[in-house]
Structures are given as structure tokens and as C-alpha cells.
Write a structure and sequence with these properties.
The protein is of the alpha+beta class. The chain has six helices and 14 strands. Strands 3, 4, 6, 7, 8, 9, 10, 11, 12, 13 and 14 form an eleven-stranded mixed beta sheet that branches. The chain has a three-stranded antiparallel beta sheet with strand order 1-2-5. It is globular and about 50 Å long.
Length: 278
């Protein structure tokens, strides 16, 4: 057997099969250039070092991937189906928003407001959920996700435990973080996963406390549409900085430096974590 064959459990259908390389985000979404993938334990070592800024990953150990971010997550069948069903509509969404970003690139702005016409909400949110399944094993212990994502017409899924937020990516660290759990004194346990790379970030909250109001614009309503629905959607998308590897942490460098001399960033229990930095 060739050394290039990858056998494992597909993170969508759950079958033990030959796996194909899956770009996360899709290659056509600004993800087709060389990146340095840095494992979470390596980044934790750096964060523990008071002499190194947490966003300076230049000396951290990592593996370069020539073709962009991603991994051998899906079998060929699941990769092909989701790529045909969801990626084209997702790309329309991404490139239309990026066009609006590009038009104001010379200006300082905290958020971007725009109206998107004729977009397909259900394929878009299904592509985002597919990406989160890619970087997390076991589809969050929810077997109903399999049929939901592998049946493009299925829109009867109970999505009440999932909340998806979007932001414009800024800062020096790009994150592809699997499930992590943190304790918040105001909201209790918070379970989340994040994919934040140029130009956009998405954060998935699972069983989000009702009192928690995350940063970002919520896309959860996209679950309510049918596959063939096209509609007009108005969004105000905030620009959030990622300067440290913790999911949901959008502090500026100045804010991070202000807490360097106290016990810092307690309460995180990391799952499958990968840090991505060009």
C-alpha cells in the first residue's frame, strides 16, 4: 500500500475508509497557499513564557502545508457530495462579503454593514457546519448531524443546541480550534469551536447559555431555510482581533499586555487544537 494512502474514520459518515484531503475553509475561499500548522501544546508552551508575545509564533514548532489549511478528514464520497452541494453557494457568500470589505480596505472600521441579495442560507450554514465537523471528531456526539449534512434537502434538523457566529478576521493569529470548554463566572460552562482565518471567522457554540451574548453576527437563522431558498439578508459583521489561540478571545494586543502580570487565561480546557499562521 502506498504511503500516501490515508485510512481512517470519516468525520461525516463515520465509516472507516480511505480519506481524502479536505481544505478548511475551501481552497477557493482564500485557502490555497502555504501555511504553518502549529499544534496547541506547542502554543501553550509559548503562552506560558512571559518573555514571548502570545501572537509571535515565528519560533514555534509547526508543520508547513503547501496547499493550505486542512487535513484528511473525509472520505471521497462525503468530500464530493458536500463540495458539490454546499461549496458553490458558500463561495458566493464569501466573495460578495469580501468584495464589500475590499471596497473599504483603506478605511478604519469596527464593523461592516451590507445587504446580500439572492443568497442560499441553508447550503451556507451546512458548509460551515461541515467545516466544524471536519476539525472535530464524532460530530459532537449528535448522530442526527450525519443525515442532516449528507442529505442536502434535510431542513427538519433540531438545531436548537447550535449557535453559529461570524466575524471579520483581524489580528496576527489564525485559529482552527476544535471543541474547547471554558468556565465563565457569569455564564457557567461554555463549549465552543472556532475557525478564524483570513478574511472571516466562524465560532460554533454548543448548548450556549441563554445569558451569553457572543461577539459576532449570528447566522443561526440560516438553519430555518430550505435548500433551494434564495433570499435577501442584511448583516452587520464586526471586525474582531485574534491575537491569542483561545477560541472566543478577541482581545487587542494592548488588552492582552495589560494582564500579563496576573494569573492569565485560566479556565480553558482544550480539545483538538490547531493554530494556523501564515
Amino acid at each position: 500500500m502506498s504511503n500516501n494512502v490515508h485510512i481512517g474514520v470519516c468525520r461525516l459518515c463515520g465509516r472507516n475508509k480511505e480519506l481524502t484531503f479536505e481544505h478548511v475553509p475551501p481552497a477557493s475561499a482564500f485557502n490555497n497557499e502555504k501555511v504553518k500548522m502549529i499544534p496547541g501544546d506547542e502554543v501553550i508552551k509559548q503562552i506560558s513564557n512571559p518573555n514571548i508575545e502570545p501572537w509571535d509564533l515565528s519560533k514555534s514548532y509547526g508543520k508547513y502545508q503547501q496547499r493550505g489549511r486542512g487535513g484528511f478528514y473525509l472520505c471521497a464520497d462525503c468530500n464530493s457530495k458536500t463540495g458539490q452541494w454546499y461549496v458553490p453557494q458558500y463561495m458566493e457568500f464569501v466573495h460578495e462579503i469580501y468584495g464589500a470589505m475590499y471596497s473599504v480596505k483603506e478605511r478604519e472600521y469596527a464593523s461592516l454593514g451590507l445587504t446580500l441579495k439572492n443568497i442560499a442560507p441553508l447550503p451556507i450554514i451546512k458548509q460551515i457546519m461541515t467545516m466544524f465537523c471536519d476539525i472535530n471528531e464524532g460530530h459532537f456526539g449528535d448522530d442526527k448531524l450525519i443525515d442532516y449534512l449528507l442529505n442536502k434537502e434535510n431542513n427538519s434538523f433540531d438545531y436548537s443546541r447550535y449557535h453559529v457566529y461570524m466575524h471579520i478576521h483581524a489580528g496576527d493569529v489564525e485559529r482552527m480550534n476544535g471543541i474547547s470548554v471554558r468556565f465563565d463566572s457569569h455564564h457557567g460552562m461554555i463549549t465552543l469551536s472556532e475557525i478564524s482565518t483570513f478574511p472571516f471567522g466562524f465560532t460554533l457554540y454548543i448548548d450556549k447559555p441563554n445569558s451569553l451574548k457572543p461577539e459576532g453576527v449570528e447566522l443561526t437563522s440560516f438553519f430555518k431555510y430550505k435548500y433551494t431558498d434564495r433570499c435577501e439578508v442584511s448583516l452587520i459583521i464586526p471586525k474582531l482581533e485574534c491575537n491569542i489561540f483561545f477560541s472566543g478571545d478577541y482581545r487587542t494586543k494592548k488588552m492582552i499586555n495589560c494582564v500579563k502580570n496576573r494569573e492569565r487565561d485560566a479556565g480553558y480546557v482544550s480539545g483538538d487544537v490547531e493554530i494556523v499562521k501564515k
